[in-house]
Design a protein that fits this description.
- The chain is an alpha+beta fold.
- It has a three-stranded antiparallel beta sheet with strand order 5-7-8, with no helix packed on it. The chain has a three-stranded antiparallel beta sheet with strand order 6-10-9, with no helix packed on it. A two-stranded antiparallel sheet has the order 1-2.
- It has one domain.
- The two termini are about 35 Å apart.
- The protein is built from five helices and twelve strands.
- Helix 2 runs antiparallel to helix 4.
- The chain is about 25% helix and about 10% strand.
Length: about 260
Amino acid sequence: MPTRRLFARTLVLAPALSLFRPASLLAQGEDGDPFHGEDPPNVFFSPCGKPFRAKHAAPYPVVDWFKAVDTNGDGKIDHAEFMADCLAFFKILDRNGDTVISPQEVTFYEQRIAPEVLGMRVEGTSNEIFEAKPRLWLVQMLPQSPGGSGPYRPDTATGPGGTVDPATPDDGPEETPRSRPYDASGKGAAPYSFFDEPEPVTAADLDFRGLISKANFLKLAAVHFQTLDHTDAGYLTLELLPKTPVQRRLAHSHHGGR
C-alpha cells in the first residue's frame, strides 16, 4: 500500500526523539491540500493509532481520548494510564491473542478500523468508537460517483445497533466500500495525530520483520509519552498537548479552540 513506503523513517528507536517529529509541526499545504479546500473530518488518532471520530460541529475528539485514558479523573494522563491504554488497543489489534500483530491483522486495522490510513475520508456519528467489548461503529464513506452512496460496512458480521466485533472471525464474503480516496499525499493518519506517522501501527515494526510484537508496540508507546511530556512532569494535560494539523485547521475555520 502506498503509505507503507513511508514507514522506515519512524521504525528505528534512537536516543534522539526528534525521529518522531510531531505532526503539529508539519507544514500546512505540504504535498498540496489533501482536503481539496474542504473542512477535514472531525477525527483524532491516539498515539497508539486508535481513531476517535465526532460529528462535524462537536468538540475535537482528542477530548474523548483524554477522558477515556484518564481513568482516575484527575485531569492528567500519567505514564501508567498512557501505557495501559496502548496495551488495551494492542489486545484489540492482536485478534488471535498470540502477542504479535501479523500482516493480516494490520490489514484488518487499516481496512476495518482506521481506513483513514489508506486515504479514505471517514465521517463518524459517535464520539465512542469502542464499547466495553470492542466493537466498531459503522461509518459513512464519501460516494464514489453521483448516485453512488452507501455505508462502509467494516464486516458482514454486525452486532446490535449496527456494530461489528473486531474479534469475530471473517466467515462471509467481504463487502467493498463504495468510496473514493480523498488524500493522495501519503500522509495517512498523520494529519489526525500528534506524530508524523502515516500508519501508526506499523510504525511499531521496529525490527523490520513485518510483525509488530507487544514489546515493540509498548516501546514505541513509551517514546511517544516521553515526547509528549516535554516538560518532564511525568504526566500529560489536555492544555499542554500539541494540536494536530486537522485540529488546527478546524479551529481556524470555525474560529474556535479545542
